[in-house]
Amino acid sequence: MERSYDAGASAGARIRMLRTERGLSLSALAAAAEIGKGTLSELEAGRRNPTLETLYAVAGPLGVPLAALLEDHDGAGAADEALSARRLHLVREAGHTTEVYLVQVAPGRTRRSPAHATGAHEQLVVLTGRCRLDVGGTVVELGPGEHHAWAADVAHAYTGGPEGFSGVDVIRTPG
Q: How far is CA 73 from each of CA 7, 33, 49, 141, 172, rounded to the nearest angstrom?
């Protein structure tokens, strides 16, 4: 799987804008996201393409959905060695944002997701393959047609079965 984001410079600009709006220093956001200050600086300057892992790490402390950092159109995507995600739909309504993604996790690979913004909820419907979902230490095994919903403001992880898995992931974030 490709290990890049398809519009790194615009993601960096979005991160910088959101960080500034929230009155966070570069050091404070880097510490909260558990990434290096130099890495964050390079992302914001457009000199580095963020991985999906970095985007998730930054989105949580900024209190925004992943969609706030991606290109603002259906079809926008990001990937790392374990997971690729392509935005299918986005709904912004008063009080919350709902993101719908097609996700694929490689066989035997694990994608760890830090806690999303406070009050976020997520649900996954497996389309093909098998998924092992770990939400705060509670493990759920899912196969085709099965789904699970959880409070996504805790760390969680997706692991692909022997053939990996594809699914539809819906994330609802307040704000």
A: 12, 25, 19, 32, 17
d(CA 72, CA 120): 20
Each residue of 108-156: pLDDT tens digit? 999 988 888 889 999 999 999 999 999 999 999 999 999 999 999 999 9
pTM > 0.90: no
Burial of 2 (0-12, 13-18, 19+ CB in 10 A): exposed
In order of their start, the domains of the chain are: 8-68 (1.10.260.40), 77-174 (2.60.120.10)
The DSSP element (H or E) to which 114 belongs, if any, is none
